[in-house]
Amino acid sequence: MSTFPDYYKLLNISQNASVDDIKTAYKKESLKTHPDRLANATPEQRQAATEKFQAVADAYYVLSDPTRRREYDSLYSTRRPQERTAQPDASASFFATFANMFG
Amino acid sequence: MPTAIGIDLGTTRCCVGIWRNDRVEIIPNEEGNPFTPSYVSFTETEWLIGDAAMRKAARDPSNTVFNVKRLLGRAFSDPGIQADIAHVPYEVFEKDMKPHIRVRYRGNTKEFSPEEVFSLILTKMKEIAQSYLGSIVTSAVITVPAHFNLSQRQTTKDAGTMAGLKVLRVLSETSACAATYRVDRWNARDHNVLIFDLGGGSLSVSLVTAHESGVLDVQANAGDAHLGGEDFDDRLVQHFSAEFKRNHRVDLSGNHRALRRLRIACERAKRTLSSAMKTTVMVDGLYEGIDFETSLTRGSFEDLCDDLFRRTLDPIDSVLRDAKIHKSQVDEVILVGGSTRIPRIGRLVSEFFDGKELNRSMNTDEAVTCGAAIQAAILAGATSEKTQGVLLLDVAPVSLGIETTGGAMTPIIKRHSTVPTKKSQMFTTTSNNQPGVFVQVYEGVHAKAKDNNLVGRFVISGLSPAPRGVPRIEVTFDMDANDRLVVSATDKGSGKSQTISISSDVRGLSRKEMEAMSAEAEGYYREAAERKAAKKSLEAYASSLETAIVELQNALGRATLLMNAGKDISAEVYRHRQQAMEEAAETAMRKLSGSATSQQGERSGRRVSDEKYIRSWQLSPV
After folding, report:
1. pLDDT tens digits, residue range B490-514?
2. Domain region containing B571
3. B5: Cβ–Cβ under 8 A, 6 or more apart, which residues?
4. Catalytic: B582?
5. Catalytic residue among B84, B158, B173, B366
6. Which residue in B has a C-alpha nearest to residue A56's C-alpha?
């Protein structure tokens, strides 16, 4: 695992954001990145937005649940800032390993 | 902007609508009805769709096709399909492992797939919209039950494409209702909405969180593919057939015309009992001049269907469980679908929620069409203040994964994941020097892969020989908002990768393809083994050459030392040194030629074989 998805950065929130902050940020980012809201965009823009949305949805899944968030936070603190990334592609593989911890 | 319509493609009837001037208009058909029966009748001269076809059902039952939705995108071997076939008067047979329909049309026998029948109905709905709007309709959102899997959704999409429509989305019926709810009743706070949609053929239940921002977050779906108005009609038909048999010693089963007429009378009685407490079921000349007349009370109808009615609560239970929401946290319970007019159903749902008042403000029959039309407008890029900010975050209807060791299903995208979604997982081989991996993609919730629905398969061959558990194969599932799934697998060692796009037709591998792939993989395997052996041999030779050179250099060094030592050296000493050098050279040469013959490539004795061989290329989670 070389890169670590920074779910806080993806949702544009601070590490001590409240549950309501997380919810609001998720809805806000969804409206910006979900391809359904981009009917008049170019295919490339839609593709880029789709990738971003996929990571944003992962971020919400992880941070909206207290247990998952605690687990994520403990991993987060072991990573140096330069290892954390808001690039969407870091989420797909991290997520699978991470989500399996919860069965 | 293209003209985009919303179509509610129901088991028993269809409805079409369009978003215009900030509201949904439901489009009536040529007979002025907002609903068009999902019936197609084939005659000697033409095919009829809708009301005209339904009227033919009693006269020409074997050529009038209905309830096709229950056949869509399913395997012929499906036990549910078999029960459905027993209930319909037209011929259903197996072709390519799927149910097909055989009818007489224009004096010939014609075969249709369920999606072809659907494409006829969709064409009709498109024409209804075009003649009403006076313009060409290019695209549509089509609704399906929330529990429809990927294959069924793809098949629905294919039917739309065949009807000349660009299908913008195959949308869950309950999700469509959520969109209607959002546009109809803006509520500036977060709240949980349970949508209970009981139609003619199926039940769908969804839990959706409506957010003040306009975002609708679908939490969970559940449903029953075989529970709806048709099943209640069936009960009544069975009951009255038995009564007729008792009274007149006449068996109606097999007499499609009589059964059809009895069914129409039963359906009418069912509807009447939604408002009246008692009704009469009457069919003149039901069988050989014998009239049938009997009475039915609401109480006895409820008793006859009691188990079916109670079954409607099961999906509510599972939706709440999946969404991890207690029933007391549900803010609104919305009932839609014609069968929710049955008073007993409403009472059962209300009792389930401890006497909660149900929301019946939405038009029971049109809510789904409205939502489809709203979503169609949004996806086509319409700009309306009322749809501004409305976003439906829908979920994957089933789990998607691959088969791993022991036939297990390892889900990659879990059911109820918000789409679009992309997930990767690392896998490895299960045997030593496994030459490839066989990736089989399934959809479904069962723990055993074979109990789920196979949607695609492919092979990566030419893995470098390695002990089991060592190779790293990354499998990625990428699903877009249109339920289009792209599966790729990459062997991290060799960089070899394969990508497939899952479509409605399982890209099954024929035996020949299997053999070809096996042979190709065997070729790779042999090539890789030879390459490895050759390299090893070269390394060994180079290393022994190096040793020899070092030994010779040492001998040479000693000789040089002796030669430069001066005049006091005897001939004996020179001769002795030369002899030692000759011996060293000889040893070195012998070593070199010997090592060259001992290093032969280890050839694999594995025979090129067939499907069974490829099937052994299993994957296991890391």
Report:
1. 999 888 899 988 864 544 445 555 5
2. 540-604
3. B16, B17, B18, B27, B125, B126, B129, B137, B139, B140, B141, B372, B373, B376
4. no
5. B173
6. B421
